[in-house]
Design a protein that fits this description.
The complex is a heterodimer of chains A (272) and B (221).
Chain A (H helix, E strand, L loop, with lengths): L1 E10 L2 E11 L4 E5 L6 H8 L7 E6 L2 E2 L7 H6 L1 E4 L11 H11 L5 H14 L15 H13 L5 E5 L7 H16 L3 E5 L3 H7 L2 E6 L2 E6 L1 H6 L4 H11 L22 H8 L2
Parallel strand pairs in A: 3-8, 3-9, 6-7, 7-8
Antiparallel strand pairs in A: 1-2, 1-4, 4-5, 9-10
Chain B lengths: L1 H12 L1 H34 L3 H16 L2 H11 L7 H27 L3 H9 L4 H31 L11 H12 L2 H31 L4
Helix pairs in contact in B: 1-9, 2-3, 2-5, 2-8, 3-5, 4-5, 5-7, 6-7, 7-9, 8-9
Classes of the chains: A alpha/beta (272), B mainly alpha (221).
The structure holds adenosine-5'-diphosphate and magnesium ion (MG).
Chain lengths: 272, 221
C-alpha cells in the first residue's frame, strides 16, 4: 500500500529524515514510536506531502508519486490524517466539518454527503452532536469528529500523529476504541503514538525511530519483549518506567505490565 | 451664550444641506471602502503567497501608499491623471480613498489570516483541498471574523479621511462646512456643526460594528 525508499528530509541545514525505507501493506497497522524530535511527525507529513522530502521515493497503492507532475491534492484526498490538536474547523458544525471535503473536493451532492456523514458520526458515537460546534465538545469528542472527517474522504490509508497526546487521560480510551474499530475493519493505518498498550494490542508492526532513522521494526511481541537494539531498549525503559531514572546496566527488561497507569507521565515526557 | 444659540440656529437651519452633504460623504466612503476591501484582500493574499514577485509587488504597494499623504494621492489621481482619464470628482476621490485604505486593509487582512492557526490550513490540505479552496472555505471565514474590530476602526478613519475630498471640490460635508463658514464668517459654529455630523456618523457606525461583533461571536468560538 505504501512503499518508501531512501527518504531524506532537510529543514534548511537540519537533516531530519536520514534515509527512511518503509513498507506498509494493505490493512496493516504500523505504530511509530520514538522520542520527541526523532522525525516521526515529519515522516507522516512527507507521506501526504504536507512536507516535501528532498530525496527518495514514495509509492502509494502501487504508484510512484512524482511530486512535480502528480496532483498532490488528489493524493492527499486519498490519505487521511488525524492531528494531535484535532484541527477541526471551528466555524463549522460537527456535520459541517465532516461533509466539507466530500462536497467541496469530491463534488458529492450535499444530501448524500450528509447521509454518509451521519453514518460516520454514528460510527464514532457522535451522531447526537452533529449540529454542535467543535468548541462545545470535549477533546475526545473533537478527535473522534476529526477521525470521521478524515474517513469521509474514503481514504486508502489513515495517518495518526499522536492522536491522544493532547487529551485528558480519561478521554484517551474513547479515541483509541474508535481506532481499534477501524483497524478491525481493515483500514491501513500508520500511528505515531506513545500509547504502548495500544501499540501492543493493535499494531501488526512497531517501528522505533531515533534521530531520523528507523532503528528497529518488528512485531509488538518482539520489540517489547526482545528488543534487539540497545537504543530501543533504552527508549522503552524510559517510556515504560518514567519514574525510575536511567536503566540499570544491561539487564533484560523483564516482562511488561500493561502501561495504562504510566501513560500520563510518558505523554508529559515525550509530548512534542 | 451667544455661541450656543447661534450654533443651534445654524445647525437647525442648515440641516437639509448638511444632510445632503453627509449623504455624499457616506456614498463616497462606502464606495471607497467597498473597493478598498477588495484591494486589501488582493494584496494581503499576494503578500502571503510564496511567490517572490507577488510578494514584492504587494510590499511595494503598501510601502508607497502608506508612505505618502492621502491628499497627495487624491491630487495625483484627480489632477494628475486627468490628462489621461477623467474620472470626475466623485470617482477620483473614491478611487484615491480606496487605494489609500486598501493598503491599510491589506495589512489588517494579512495579520488576520496569519492569526489563524497553521493547523487549519494543514487539516484542509490533508483533506485534498487546494490552497485556494482552503483559503476561501476555511481560513478567510475565520479571519474575517477576527478582523471585524480593526476593520471597523479603519472604516472610521476612512470616513473621516473622506473629508479631504473637499479639496477637489467634492460637495461633501467638509466642503459644505468651508462654504458656509466663508459665507457667514461663523467659522467656529460651522466647523463645530460639521464635527458633530461626523461624530454622529462615527457613533452610529461604531454601534453597528459592536452589534456585528457580538453576533459573530455567538456559539462559534
Ligand atoms: N517546519 C519545520 N522547520 C524546521 N524544523 C522542523 C520543522 N518541523 C520539524 N522540525 C524539526 O525536525 C525534527 C523532527 O521533528 P518531528 O518530525 O516533529 O519529530 P517528532 O514528531 O518525532 O517529535 C525536530 O528537530 C524539529 O525541530
Ligand atoms: Mg511529533
Amino acid at each position: 500500500m505504501i512503499k518508501i525508499r531512501g527518504l531524506h528530509k532537510y529543514f534548511g541545514s537540519l537533516h531530519v529524515l536520514k534515509g527512511i525505507d518503509l513498507d506498509v501493506g494493505r490493512s496493516e497497522v504500523v505504530c511509530l514510536i520514538g522520542a520527541s524530535g526523532s522525525g516521526k511527525s515529519t515522516l507522516l507529513r512527507c507521506i501526504n506531502f504536507l512536507e516535501k522530502a528532498q530525496e527518495g521515493e514514495i509509492w502509494i497503492d502501487g504508484k510512484k508519486i512524482d511530486r512535480k507532475k502528480d496532483d498532490l491534492n488528489k493524493i492527499r484526498a486519498e490519505v487521511g490524517m488525524v492531528f494531535q490538536l484535532f484541527n477541526l474547523f471551528p466555524h463549522k458544525t460537527v456535520l459541517g466539518n465532516v461533509i466539507e471535503a466530500p462536497v467541496m473536493v469530491k463534488r458529492m451532492p450535499r444530501d448524500e454527503a450528509k447521509k454518509e456523514g451521519m453514518a460516520l458520526l454514528e460510527k464514532v458515537g457522535l451522531a447526537d452532536k452533529a449540529h454542535a460546534y467543535p468548541s462545545q465538545l470535549s477533546g475526545g469528542q473533537q478527535q473522534r469528529v476529526a477521525i470521521a472527517r478524515a474517513l469521509a474522504m474514503k481514504p486508502k490509508v489513515m495517518l495518526f500523529d499522536e492522536p491522544t497526546s493532547a487529551l485528558d487521560p480519561e478521554l484517551v480510551g474513547e479515541v483509541l476504541e474508535v481506532m481499534k474499530q477501524l483497524a478491525r475493519e481493515g483500514m491501513t493505518m500508520i500511528v505515531v503514538t506513545h500509547e504502548m498498550a495500544f501499540a501492543r494490542e493493535v499494531a501488526d508492526r512497531v517501528i522505533y525511530m531515533d534521530d531520523g532513522k528507523i532503528i528497529e521494526a518488528a512485531t509488538p511481541q518482539e520489540i517489547f519483549e526482545h528488543p534487539k537494539e540497545e537504543r530501543t531498549r533504552e527508549f522503552l525503559w524510559r517510556v515504560l518506567n518514567p519514574n525510575k531514572g536511567p536503566r540499570p546496566g544491561n539487564k533484560a527488561m523483564g516482562p511488561l505490565a500493561p502501561q495504562e497507569k504510566n501513560r500520563d507521565d510518558c505523554h508529559l515526557e515525550n509530548a512534542g | 451664550m451667544n455661541f450656543i444659540t447661534d450654533l443651534v440656529n445654524y445647525f437647525v437651519r442648515d440641516i437639509p444641506i448638511f444632510a445632503t452633504a453627509a449623504w455624499l460623504t457616506i456614498k463616497l466612503t462606502a464606495a471607497a471602502l467597498a473597493i478598498g476591501v477588495f484591494i486589501g484582500l488582493f494584496f494581503a493574499l499576494l503578500k502571503l503567497s510564496k511567490n517572490r514577485i507577488s510578494n514584492g509587488i504587494a510590499h511595494l504597494y503598501i510601502t508607497i501608499i502608506r508612505g505618502t499623504p492621502l491628499i497627495v494621492q487624491i491630487f495625483a489621481i484627480y489632477f494628475g491623471l486627468a490628462r489621461m482619464v477623467d474620472f470626475g470628482v466623485f470617482w477620483s476621490a473614491a478611487i484615491a480613498l480606496a487605494v489609500h485604505n486598501g493598503a491599510y486593509i491589506a495589512e489588517i487582512f494579512r495579520a488576520g489570516i496569519q492569526s489563524i492557526n497553521r493547523g487549519q490550513m494543514e487539516a484542509a490540505r490533508s483533506l485534498g483541498m487546494t490552497y485556494g479552496l482552503a483559503m476561501r472555505r476555511i481560513i478567510l471565514p475565520q479571519a474575517f471574523k477576527r478582523v471585524v474590530p480593526p476593520l471597523g476602526n479603519q472604516f472610521i478613519i476612512g470616513l473621516k479621511d473622506s473629508s479631504l475630498a473637499a479639496f477637489i471640490t467634492a460637495p461633501e460635508l467638509f466642503q459644505m462646512a468651508m462654504r458656509r463658514a466663508a459665507a457667514t464668517c461663523a467659522d467656529l459654529e460651522y466647523y463645530t456643526i460639521t464635527g458633530l455630523w461626523y461624530l454622529a456618523m462615527v457613533i452610529v457606525f461604531s454601534f453597528l460594528v459592536a452589534k456585528l461583533e457580538k453576533r459573530l461571536d455567538v456559539d462559534k468560538a
